[in-house]
Amino acid sequence: MNQEIDFIQCKPSISIDFTMQDLPKFKNEPNIVVLFGFPYDEGTIRNKGRAGGENGYEQIMLVLKQKLKECNIQQKVIHVGYVPKQLTLEDAHEYLYQHIAEIYYQLPQAKVIVIGGSNDQSYPNFKGLVDGMQCKKLGVINIDSHLDVRPLINQNQSHSGSPFRNMLEDVERFQNSKFVEFAIKGCTCSYDHYQYVLNKGGKVYFMEKDIRRLNAENQGLSAMNNVLTEFENDQNIDFIFLSFDVDSINSAWCPGVSAPSIVGGLTNIEALSIMERAKKSNKIKLIDLSEFNPAVECERTSNLISEMIITFIL
C-alpha cells in the first residue's frame, strides 16, 4: 500500500459543495464519488450508547475539505448535503433512504459515501441502493466489532444495534443477496445473535479467531481481500455495499467512538488498506462510515476517517 501522497504533484482542488439539484450536471462524469451526511446519534442513544455522534459528519467534512486542498484526486468528488438535523429519527431514515435512491437514479455510475452518525443509517442506505439501482443481488459487508442484529425496541423503533436485522428481515429487498460480518469481537455479541446471522445465511469473521490467525503481514487486508474477491467473482452479485463502523478500529488509532475497541480491533494501516482495496473493486457502489463521536475524541479520529475517505477517492 502506498501510504504517502506525493505532494510535489499535488494541486489545489476545486470546491466539492453542490446540491441534489446539481446531480444532472454530472450524468456524463464516468468516475464520480458522491458524499452525503447523516448527522444523527439518536440510534446510538436508544442503544444505550454515548451521545455526541451527531457532530461527527460535520467534523469529518471540515477535516476532509482541508486535506483535499492538497490532493490531486483522480475521481470527481461532490458533496450534495445531509439529512436535516431537526427530524425525528424515523423521518431522518426516510429522508436518507429517499435521497440515496435519488442519487443512484440520477447518477447510476456513481459511488456513494455516507458519513454518520450512528450505524442505524445502514438500513436506509441499503434500501436506497437497492431501489435506486433497481437491483436485488447485493454483497453486504459489515465491518464492525458488533453484529448489529439486535431486535427493535419500544414498538419497533430502530437503533444503532439493529440495522442488519432490519436488512435481513426485509425479504423482498434482501432475498437474493449475501451478507458478511467482519472483524467481530466475540465478547461483544450474544450467541443468539450469532446464530441468527448464520440462520439467515450470513458469514461471520471474528477478529481474533478468524482474522488474527491468518499467516499474513496485513491480516485485516488479507481477510477482506478474500471476502471481496469472492463477491467480485460471484456472477449473482451485482454490487457491494461496505458498511464500516469505525469502532472496529483499535482505540490507539481511533479513540473517538461510542464504544472503543480497547483490546483488539483493526489497526490504522489495516483500515486504510481495506479502503484502498475497496477502491479497486468494480462492484463497490456504497460505503457508509458510522459511530465517530467527536465528544469522546476529535482530532486523531477525524484525521484517520478523512484519510480513509481520501484513500478511496484518490
By CATH, the architecture is named 3-Layer(aba) Sandwich
Question: Cα distance, first to last residue?
Answer: 13 Å
User: How many domain regions?
Assistant: 1
Shape: globular
Measured by DSSP, the beta-strand proportion falls in 15-25%
Main-sheet strand order equals: 2-1-3-8-7-4-5-6
> Helical region count?
11
CATH level-four homologous superfamily name? Ureohydrolase domain
Largest sheet: 8 strands, parallel
- Average residue pLDDT: 94
From the 3D structure, determine the CATH topology.
Arginase, Chain A
Tell me roughly what share of residues is in helical segments.
25-40%
Low-confidence stretches: 1-13
Q: Spell out the helices and strands N to C.
A: EHHEHEHEHHEHEHHEHEH
Q: In CATH, what is the class?
A: Alpha Beta
Rg, Cα atoms, Å? 18 Å
The beta-strand count equals: 8
Features:
314 residues; alpha/beta; Arginase, Chain A; 8-stranded parallel beta sheet; 37% helix; disordered N terminus; Arginase; metal-binding; agmatinase activity; hydrolase
Describe the structure.
Strands 2-1-3-8-7-4-5-6 form an eight-stranded parallel beta sheet, sandwiched between helices. It contains eleven helices and eight strands. With 314 residues, it is an alpha/beta fold. The chain is globular. The protein has one domain: Ureohydrolase domain (Arginase, Chain A), CATH 3.40.800. This is Arginase. It holds the Pfam family Arginase. One of its GO terms (biological process) is putrescine biosynthetic process from arginine, via agmatine. It comes from Paramecium pentaurelia. Keywords: Hydrolase, Metal-binding.
